[in-house]
Amino acid sequence: MSCIVDGTTIQGVDVCPQSWSESPEYFGESSYFGGQPPLSKAVGYLVVVGFGLLFSIFTTVVVYLDKAFSANSSWTSEQFNTAGRMVKTGLTASVIISQWTWAATLLQSSNVAWQYGVSGPFWYASGATIQILVFGVLAISLKDVAPSAHTMCEIVRARWGKTAHLTFLFFGFCANIIVTAMLLLGGAATVEALTGVNYELASFLIPWGVILYTSAGGLKATFMASYLHTMIIFAVLITMITVVYIKVYSADQMYDFLDQTVSYTTEQCEAIYSTDGTPETSFFMDDSGKKQMACGPVAGNVQGSYLTMISSGGLMFGIINIIGNFGTVFVDQSYWQSAIAARPSSAARGYLLGGICWFAIPFSLATSLGLASTALMLPINSGEAGSGLVPPAVADHLLGQAGSALILIMLFMAIVSTGSAESIAVSSLIAYDIYREYFNPEATGKQILWVSRIVIVCFGIFMGLFSIALNAMGLNLGWVYLFMGVVIGSAVIPLWNMMTWSKASGKGAVIAAWSGFALAVTAWLSAAHITSGSISVATLGDNRVMLSGNLVAILSSGFIHFVYSKFFDNEVFDFDTLDAKIQLVEQDLSGLGAEQQDKAYLKKMKKWITVRGWGLTIILAIVWPLMSVPAQVFTKDYFAFWVLVSVAWGFGAAIIISLLPLIESQDEIYRVLNGMKNSMCGKKMEEVEAEEPLKSIRKQTMDEDEGFADTPDEAEVEPIEGEVPPAEEAA
Fold first, then answer.
1. Whole-angstrom Cα distance, residue 185 to residue 407?
2. CA-closest candidate to residue 149, choices 582, 659, 447, 473
């Protein structure tokens, strides 16, 4: 029996790709989208511009209501940049998920599933979760030694001085620019592929959805919008995994399809991906002999299978992912800002819960959409995959225009949520670490607010133009994602040492950061020349080349900082003096009371997060992968269990992260709703507040009349001196 599609016999192929039975028009296509977007430009503009305006209006109204009817109605620069330092666990976790869900989380995770199979989604998820878990240790350390801080660089300045301050400002800005560039590169490419909106125009319009509500409401608006973004992202995630593994296919069917994909020989793949069913007209490989389509055995995987964790390419990506993402968490001001905004208990629990729930997004999404792309053998070429177009292609195949629209909305949520966090991070660094530190030390709160808002607008415009320039240079989402660790990896260990090691040298940190950066770039360029004999965008983007640069960046700087601090600079820093060197702009002490500064409690929470953070890190990075090795190539039952874990993790995370913030904030929600009701009834806030004590007195009087008051043996009555308490007398 031969494979015949639309009357054309595919030479030497007995079984056609699964997608051809559903969509025979895929035969002869060298790309999935082929320049024909499934959605209209009107939909693109509606999402990019309309959603931006919608969130701006929504968050502005919510922030206004919170300000008008909550107990903390003051609006200062401290509130704008720290959200009052009293954010609870659920919202902290939701914000961490929102900040850490980049365009790359949704797009690049499925790309590595397309390339390496089941190991790709796992290494993306685990390799980017452990940084959040470990950062919880820094978050609680910050609450202990520098609770008044606004930025990480303020702490650097207070401990290590001006030279170190300027050094880590550079790396901090690099982190913000690289992360935002990835958001726009992936986002604009997907918007163009799905709707036909011009790439350059999309790059310029997308930041405005972030600029409007972030500049209006500051960090609190960012947090409130982030919760809504996270809920929408999880709603689409659940929809996709349900469609792939429950509604349309099953785990067993996907297993068979993936087996079929790798069973084809090179000759058969050439015939499948051709214009007339023969190898002579094939576009399966490019001129250099590199595969352009997902077909045939996977190089570097055991038995060439997509269904194995033993993958050299997947492992190499995992190592790059781990190293690079340490930089984008530890060197990114937005994560320090979330720690600053959280109350002490939330700083530990929020990061742990956020990391665990975030794991589900790349793992569950890529295990469904990413694997489905190769199982169905959709005509997605390597260029489209590298630009992050695997999820929209699969969603469009399964759900038509509705699927494309859902991915577009999900992607836009990821872009604006992370983009708003990056914008407020950059504005804080410039307002506090440049404007106040070097230009206006006596800056007032109004001046700080003005500078923060101006910077948010300017940064958004700059990043739109910068992403256009990167695209013109031929740099896509996947390339920049692998490159980030080369640039900022050398700042990771010095920043960790700053918060946890009293002997960490400031001069050593500066030397380590710059030396590590120089060595990383040198190793990166040298590796490209050694492996391919030339230096170009393509050769520099090779996994082995990127791995060398990433490893040298983080390891060399850590070694240099340790040696210098240990043997050349023996100064011991007193952490108790650190917070006194950091000044508030207004004397807004919210989140800085005695209850939040309980040293015994902070010590207990630090131990709590250290044990759990490092424990989960070991499980995700070492134990889980090692436990998968004996399986070699997964059996059907093993793969079914793997899929079950991904589905359950996705549903569980969605339920927790959607409900917990609402449960924790029910008092605040009630206060705002009650305030709105009283306002509509014509009551002023002063009248309502004056009535509260009277209501309390009336309730107490009614309880006494009805016999509900505490009896002496139920209440805590202070005994008269010399009198034996009733409980002891009874004994």
1. 16
2. 582
DSSP-assigned states of every residue in 579-622: GGG---SS---TT-STGGG-HHHHHHHHHHHHHHHHHHHHIIII
Cβ atoms 411, 190 nearer than 8 A:
yes
The 10s digit of each residue's pLDDT in 140-169 is: 888 888 888 888 999 999 999 999 999 999
Q: Which of 465, 388, 438 is nearest to 190 (CA)?
A: 388
For 278, the token pair is 């023969």
Give the C-alpha separation, 637 to 250, whole Å: 12
Assign residue 435 a region (left: φ > 0; alpha: ψ between -120 and 50; beta: otherwise): alpha
How far, in Å, CA of 174 to CA of 177, rounded?
A: 5
On whether the CB atoms of residues 111 and 370 are closer than 8 A, the answer is yes
Q: In this structure, is the dihedral angle defined by the CA atoms of residues 305, 311, 317 and 321, taken in order, positive or negative?
A: positive
Q: What is the pLDDT of residue 712?
A: 42
Residue where the block lists tokens 């559903």: 22
Cβ neighbours for 504, distance < 8 A, ≥ 6 positions apart: 494, 497, 498, 561, 565, 573
272 three-class SS: helix
pLDDT greater than 90 at residue 256: yes
Token look-up 């007193």 returns 574
Report residue 243 as tokens. 């469609």
Q: Where are the alpha helices (DSSP H) in 23-88?
A: 41-45, 51-69, 77-82
Q: What is the CA radius of gyration of the chain?
A: 28
The Cα–Cα gap between 244 and 373 comes to 11
Extract the tokens encoding 476. Answer: 């896509």
* Secondary structure in 3-state letters for 127-142: HHHHHHHHHHHHHHHH
> Which one-letter DSSP state was computed for residue 429?
I
Helix (H) or strand (E) segment spanning residue 414: helix 401-428
The angle at the Cα of 128, spanning 338 to 377, to the nearest 5 degrees, equals 130
